[in-house]
Amino acid sequence: MIQTSALTPAMGVKVSGVDDLRDPAVIGRCLEALKWRGVLLIRGLHLDDEAQVAFSKQLGPVLAPAGKEVFVVSLDPAKSRSAEYLKGTFHWHIDDTTNDVPARATMLTARHVAMVGGGTEFASTYAAYENLPEQDRKRYDGLRVVHTFEASQRLVHPDPTDEQLAAWRTLPSHESALVWQRRDGRRSLVIGATADHIVGMRPEESRELLDELLAWSTQERFSYVHEWEKDDVVIWDNTGMLHRALPYDPSSERTMHRTTIAGDEAWS
């Protein structure tokens, strides 16, 4: 029998009693929990890559960049060609902010965990917006923000080489509303490491506003820290959850396998 329990009062659900990942009742409960609680944890499934992809496809179409449905998350260059880029994931971010349509959700399975550190922290920008004072909502509504890959990489490499800058700038930037008015009526904040500047605002004022919003959104009351156990499955709503990896030794064997569920709602 499927059972659910809250991870924190504000967000997250732990699901237990899952026997059949193809059961429509299980999928329905997962999708409902994901929509309203943002983060979903299932322990003890022991999924291999094939089973992870199959489960992901029950939740929606799975993206396959470079023809691969499973992406290996590791700081070991021998395991992941993106090891250097992944250093940016230690900063709060939302995936796909430079795309027209963001991924709907992300699934991680823990293949190896770090002995010390290496958790993943989530923060709900739905809850952050809902709890803003009314005068701040009025201040932020109508503002637009430009997201760039360069902004996130400068947090890792504050003094980039000309070659690094040239590589970062080959990737497109994207402008969206700072407050995303969702088609279901909810609103969320489009912020994080890729948020470069607010359109039409002086650089210092823009940076101050974005930093202020990030600090507000990542308060403990809006957040959940997941401490990984081997074989954990965690799924989150990429469109409304900031996330970041917590520090761990790059030489650790921490390895996650990621699948990404395609979105169907463009940034406003």
TrEMBL record:
Superkingdom to which the source organism belongs: Bacteria
Molecular function (Gene Ontology), one example: metal ion binding
Record InterPro entries: TauD-like_sf (IPR042098), TauD/TfdA-like (IPR003819), TfdA_dioxygenase (IPR051178)
Known EC number: 1.14.11.-
Residue stretches spanning the membrane: none
TauD/TfdA-like domain boundaries: 6-260
Pfam families attached to this UniProt entry: TauD
Presence of the UniProt keyword Disulfide bond in the record: no
Cofactor entry: Fe(2+)
UniProt KW keywords: Dioxygenase, Iron, Metal-binding, Oxidoreductase
PANTHER family named among the record's database cross-references: (3R)-3-[(CARBOXYMETHYL)AMINO]FATTY ACID OXYGENASE_DECARBOXYLASE, DIOXYGENASE RV0097-RELATED
Family: Belongs to the TfdA dioxygenase family.
Protein's UniProt name: Alpha-ketoglutarate-dependent 2,4-dichlorophenoxyacetate dioxygenase
Lineage: Bacteria, Bacillati, Actinomycetota, Actinomycetes, Mycobacteriales
Encoding gene (name): tfdA
